[in-house]
Amino acid sequence: MTGADDTAVPAADNAADDSAADGGPDTGADAEATAPAGPDRAQYWVCGGLALLGVLVIVDAARIAGFTASNDPIGPKPVPIILGALLIGVAAFYALDVARGGRGEAAETDGAFDWRTVGLLCALFVANALVIEWLGWVISGSLLFWGAAIVLGSRRYFLTLGAAVVLGLATFYGFAIGLGVGLPAGILQGIL
Amino acid sequence: MDNMHALIDGFGAVLTPQNLLIALIGVTIGTAVSMLPGMGTAMAIALLLPITYGLEPTQAFIMFAGIFYGGMYGGSTTAILLNTPGQSSSVVTVMEGFKMTRKGRGGQALATAAIGSFVAGTIATVALVFVTPITVDFAIGLGAPDYFAIMVLALVATASVLGSSRIRGFASLLFGLALGTIGIDAVTGQQRLTYGLPQLADGIDVVIVAVGVFAIGEALWIAARGRATKDEVLPVGRVWMGRSDWRRSWGPWLRGTALGFPFGAMPAGGAEVPTFLSYVTERRLSKHKDEFGHGAIEGVAGPEAANNASAAGTLVPMLALGLPCNATAAIMLAAFQTYGIQPGPLLFENESTLVWTLIASLFIGNAMLLVLNMPMIPIWVKLLRIPKPYLFAGILFFASMGAYAVNAQPFDLFVLLVLGLVGLAMRRFGVPMLPLIVGVILGPMAERQARMSLQLSGGDLSGLIGGPVSWTVYGIIALIALWPLAVLVRRRSTRVREPAAA
């Protein structure tokens, strides 16, 4: 907390352009944050997430039946309950720190946050997870690489596709067949 | 002298053509992957760990030792050439290293880093050979309550000492501890936090946590910031050192080693403090004080040696106590657990051959790195010119491959993505990541020790306090916990005066 207090001082100087950059694409939630020298309000989402996690941990622990045995007097319950309580406590102190203008180390809040690219990469990632067993690593991995490179700004589509296929084949032969790493062959089973 | 015999046997096990080839592959891919901009050493090791899964334990650790040293060296190369420290321990190297590159002395900076890392790595590994058995002798007398206390100390220290914001450190730690409780409770067989998902019954593999938070988080962060532009790579020149470079480097190497190893061997000692201390020391001792800040070779030689010696030092608590104190050691411990090997005092008895083979491969990997990398640096530098879209697409590609390979189930890829988004948020909000990784690993171990202690005392809470060791450790924890209060009180008193002055 000591460091955060120290950094809050210089941060306050350029807080005007900070909050201007934050407000729009960052979370949408702090769009109504109009106070020019306010703290980095998006951090309240972190506090909310921590508190929610704490509640989830406690709810799950409460579900566990009282389970004590002579060889385990405390059972599986107390540790998650303590963790959940600590999570909620930390969330509260975190919120207090945010309200006092605290910031994390090297938290770069200036500049835009490109939700579109992140969203597209996540979609590609999910697609890969859905088809990896059916199409096999060579095809799904190549598509992941190709799509990600294009999303990240590559414009040489055919060269990128070539690189993707080479990578897919090389990793499959090198790691799955050479080193015995478990990668699925999928529909190419028997061909590779 | 038994250790020496065991070590020689270890060398005997490593020195076969096949194992040397495996060490060579490890060093090469370790360097290559951690050279990629944005990749730290720990991230490289986490990404590469799954490829060792198909190997025998001995060979896996030989490759791992290679990846370890290769990854360390690759991290310092990007610091020197690109002004981008891959991890906090390279921050000091950047200060003089990049200035040297600017002055056209990049080759000398890389050479002193490589030779210094070799010298420090070798000396620190020798120290490891002698210090670890002593630590083991001490550790064998410890009971479950003492272990619990030491683990709590490691957790509290990583969360509160290393970062700049305690509350964020603890938030990260608690998130990691919560992740660590997911799965079937080992004692009672009850499912915790699985919410009915059978794939979560075995818990979340540490490799997936590390790859998700470090690699996916970093790739998403770069994508979100639109930084997919090319770095400017300055010419390196020939990698060699002149007579005066040697004369100015050997002192810093040795002093850096002496500073780095003890810090690394302490729980949560870290590499940041010794690298910084080494820098300050060299600036004070140097005959070329005016060069500091403009590319002084001592400012690269000392911190790099300290960094490497500290990394070898972290293996002491890792092997002797089963305590991982940095991200690299945490991932290494995960590798041990994959093979059903539990580090700790009994490791040297139960798996003595394996441990000494690992230590011998550390020597071999270190030597191989020096011989191979010095001439190959011009080739490695070409890796820095890979266009960013390919680079980060490649990170996503290899991360998915590694995460899938852990359990061969697509479910892990979803977990990986969720953890990647957590890593993205942690970067955005400046939350440190080390406490999370250490929490995931140490949390379940600490819980087991606590429950064992209470089992012995029949559920009485006094069972958590054992002998003098745990008293001492709790004293240190109290000191760490109370320290900010003291600072707060001092600050309050100055704050009261401030408005009066203004």
How would you characterize the overall build of this protein?
The complex is a heterodimer of chains A (192) and B (502). By secondary structure, chain A is mainly α. Among the domains of chain A are: 40-102; 116-181, no CATH class. Chain A is built from 7 helices and no strands. Chain A starts with a helix and ends in a 14-residue tail after the last helix. Chain B has 502 residues and is mainly α. Chain B has one domain (1-489). Helices cover 74% and strands 1% of the residues of chain B. In chain B, a hairpin with a 6-residue loop joins strand 1 and strand 2 (191-192). In chain B, helix 14 crosses helix 19 (434-456). The longest helix of chain B has 35 residues, at 106-140. Chain B is globular. Chain B starts with a helix and ends with a helix. The mean pLDDT of chain B is 84. Classes of the chains: A mainly alpha (192), B mainly alpha (502). Chains A and B meet through helix 1, helix 3, helix 4, helix 5 and helix 6 of A and helix 8, helix 9, helix 17, helix 18 and helix 19 of B.
- How far is it from the N-terminal to the C-terminal residue of chain A, by CA? 56 Å
Shape of chain B: globular
Query: For the terminal residues of chain B, how far apart are their CA atoms?
Result: 68 Å
The helix tally of chain A amounts to 7
- Which percent bin holds the helix content of chain B? over 70%
Structural class of chain A: mainly alpha
Q: Which stretches of chain A of 5+ consecutive residues score pLDDT under 50?
A: 1-37
Class from secondary-structure proportions of chain B: mainly alpha
Largest interface by residue count? Answer: A-B, 87 and 73 residues
The largest pleated sheet of chain A is described as: none
> Count of DSSP E strands of chain A?
0
Estimate the strand proportion of chain A.
under 5%
Instruction: Tell me which oligomeric state these chains represent.
Output: heterodimer
Q: Helix proportion of residues of chain A, in percent?
A: 55-70%
**Number of structural units classed as domains of chain B:** 1
What is the overall number of helices of chain B? Answer: 20
Q: Give the mean pLDDT of chain A.
A: 77
Computed CA radius of gyration of chain A, to the nearest angstrom: 24 Å
The total beta strand count of chain B reads 2
Cα shape of chain A: flat
Task: Name the poorly predicted regions of chain B.
Answer: none
